[in-house]
């Protein structure tokens, strides 16, 4: 099929094939890179929020809890619990514009407060931490009814002995806490045990959509540029190659029919110009050969005896 096409059409098809293949490969690579950048951006935000919640827990444990510890026997104050403080601080953050779809949870298998009860997905994360003590962090995407979210999780470990004052046995726990939450959960914890996971979920749908939109925009821009390049290449090819070749072909056809008054014009010093120059020499040689053929034999003189 290509043999029946003109030179300009062949170049156009070649460039279109390059465009399609190049855009396909570059589009996939660009989409992957933009999604990776979006993932890194989401991860950075999640890490920052996670570290902030850890700081709130440490502040509550070291400065708030010692002040309120004497009141626990008569009145249970949830503000003295590091996990409660972190959750409440994060809920205040969620009231601000731009953070309403962010969530923080200290998902626990055996919680005191039922709002911290791990769901099936969170339970799987906790079990992975429990099976691999060297695993310090998990992250990935999770699909929820509201859209995809990116989660970051770290193991929640009973790292201090004073945690067992409330979570060892119901008998050792403050009576005020028993009166508030009962004895159904939150007990028999062990020092060094992984009892849950700190999980922060960050909305990922908008970020991924933005990355995809950027990818489509860049691919579209490159496509427009490449189409312009194809047009300019065709213009250049038509002026610098196709037209000169057509002129040489037309002159050659006239010469082949005996019209020797036409000339091969050498308009450039490139390969096309050299071709015209070669045809010009061929025409000159043809004219000389025809003149020799037309020379009468009787004009020659014998010099023999």
Could you characterize what this model shows?
The chain is an alpha+beta fold and 305 residues long. It folds into two domains: 10-211, no CATH class; 213-292, no CATH class. 57% of the residues lie in helices and 11% in strands. The chain has helices at 7-68, 82-94, 120-131, 164-167, 175-181, 205-256, 271-294; strands spanning 103-108, 138-144, 147-157, 194-203. A four-stranded antiparallel beta sheet has the order 1-4-3-2, with helices on both faces. Strand 2 and strand 3 (147-157) form a beta hairpin. Helix 1 (7-68) packs across helix 2, helix 1 packs antiparallel against helix 6 (205-256) and helix 6 runs parallel beside helix 7 (271-294). The longest helix is centred in the first third of the chain and has 62 residues, at 7-68. It is rod-shaped. The chain starts with 6 loop residues before the first helix and ends in an 11-residue tail after the last helix.
């Amino acid at each position: 099929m290509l043999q029946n096409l003109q030179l300009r059409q062949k170049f156009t098809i070649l460039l279109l094939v390059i465009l399609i293949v190049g855009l396909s490969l570059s589009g996939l690579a660009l989409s992957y890179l933009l999604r990776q950048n979006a993932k890194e951006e989401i991860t950075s935000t999640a890490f920052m929020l996670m570290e902030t919640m850890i700081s709130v827990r440490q502040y509550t444990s070291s400065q708030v809890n010692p002040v309120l510890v004497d009141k626990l026997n008569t009145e249970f104050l949830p503000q003295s619990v590091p996990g409660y403080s972190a959750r409440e601080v994060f809920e205040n953050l969620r009231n601000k514009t731009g953070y309403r779809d962010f969530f923080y949870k200290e998902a626990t298998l055996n919680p005191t407060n039922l709002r911290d009860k791990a769901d099936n997905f969170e339970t799987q994360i906790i079990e992975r931490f429990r099976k691999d003590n060297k695993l310090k962090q998990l992250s990935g995407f999770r699909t929820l009814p509201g859209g995809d979210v990116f989660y970051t999780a770290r193991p929640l470990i009973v790292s201090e002995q004073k945690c067992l004052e409330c979570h060892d046995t119901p008998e050792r726990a403050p009576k005020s806490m028993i009166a508030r939450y009962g004895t159904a959960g939150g007990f028999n914890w062990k020092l060094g045990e992984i009892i849950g996971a700190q999980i922060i979920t960050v909305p990922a749908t908008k970020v991924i959509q933005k990355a995809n939109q950027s990818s489509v925009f860049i691919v579209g821009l490159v496509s427009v540029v490449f189409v312009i390049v194809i047009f300019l290449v065709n213009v250049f090819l038509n002026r610098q190659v196709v037209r000169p070749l057509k002129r040489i072909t037309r002159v050659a056809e006239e010469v082949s029919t005996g019209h020797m008054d036409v000339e091969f014009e050498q308009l450039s010093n490139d390969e096309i110009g050299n071709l015209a120059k070669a045809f010009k020499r061929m025409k000159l040689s043809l004219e000389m050969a025809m003149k020799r053929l037309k020379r009468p034999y009787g004009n020659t003189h014998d010099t023999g005896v």
